[in-house]
Amino acid sequence: MRGAGADTPAGRTAGEAGWHASRYNLVAPLPGSKNVAIANLFKGNCAEYTPLEMYLLSVVEELDEGHPIIERFARRGVIADFDEQAALEAMGRAACAMPHAIGLTLCPTMGCNFDCPYGFEDHFAGKMAPEVQDDVVALAGRMLDASGAKDVSVTWFGGEPLLAPEVIESLSGRLMALADELGGKYSASIITNGYLLTQDVADMLGRCGVRCAQVTIDGLGATHDATRRLANGGPTFERIAANLRNVKLPFEVNIRHNVHEGNMSEMDELEAFIGKLAEDSGNGLHYYPAPVSGSEAADERGGQVGLLCSGDASEVGIRQEAGRFRAGQGHYCGAHTIWSVGVDERGNLQKCWEAVDKPHISFGTAHDWDPADPLATADRPDNLTMYLNTAMPVPDGECRECVWLPHCVGGCPHRRLFDGRSCVAFKDDPETFVLALHARIGREERACTPGPTVHDEEQPL
Ligand code: SF4
Ligand code: SF4
Q1: Which one, out of 174, 376, 449, 455, has a CA that is 20 to 30 A from the CA of 80?
Q2: If you measure from the C-alpha of residue 365 to the centroid of ligand 1, how many angstroms do you get, rounded to a whole number?
């Protein structure tokens, strides 16, 4: 991937030098303008182009390779001088081979103080026992040894993780020490319903390296309480809102709104409410709508998990999808690498957040599994390898040739395994997606995200 403008023989065309239009460009005419927007899915860039620039792009291979537009196009990814598909596949393999961090999704308890419409089957609502915590720390040590990574990234999940704050506090200290010993970084996030987020708890989470939280609010007052009520049936909206207003939060909070027919009309009002809450409290609160569809149980679970999967071609769905636009990583989520595992409160290991309540698709235990010998130490190696084998190169000819591949990577591995291929819902409507991206150009987006986003330095999204 050399840059344009390097020392090269004089007189060559850009085409002779290997430049060609990217295979991952999506183009949309801008309403009321002669310009178009191009989103490059490989580079994670969206920018506006004039008719002259579009003409130059159409004849790019015939231009002199020293033409100044070549460098500009290359920086934005709309042209390339390498095989982007091969690069994506290589990045996917590299994510498994050379991680900079290990990822742990830890469930200190699978118990929950809410009576959400979903329910875990046969789950054990106890807290993670001290010996299981020891196993988790030992597992993290083995993962760091085997991978050569120095950084540790933790997501607290459940159940409701704040029902077991002592587990979070104790384990955080030990995992932070592991990263510290290696000179690495420790970072953490939490998925919580927000009901138990008192000042003491928030301070504790801050000391435990939590930098990002996700709290779900599904509407205003009674609308929220209709689905997100306490186990005893009591309401939760006022308490959550009070926590977000009165507690000084040492981390950013993404407020997830699971949008469905019953609460869609409250979107604008809820967004304004969160904006006011942020202003009044000084807390970093960031509203984002997420569409839900399909079964109620799956939707609610998806709401908790904050699924990366796309499943909705509505305006909200496309806006959500545009929100996670970034450079192609070659992998979809942690399920595609061996260095990311989920651990339930009993020490069962899973490849996917969706599976933490399903012991039958666990691949092993924190006590026994060793990534240095990942198959021999797994109880059920197939439950590990089936996820890994959905990674790049995606075992699906249609995906490998698809223009959406850098963004979609063949879709959520869990869905692929259990429901079949799940294409981006707006696969046949790329223009709407590009216009949603274009609308975000220059706008501040939510401040805490699960990973870095690579954007054009001139026109950041
Ligand atoms: S496999 Fe799908 S459901 Fe599981 S963690 Fe990845 S994106 Fe989420
Ligand atoms: S799952 Fe569908 S949209 Fe995604 S890469 Fe495969 S064919 Fe394309």
Answers
A1: 449
A2: 20
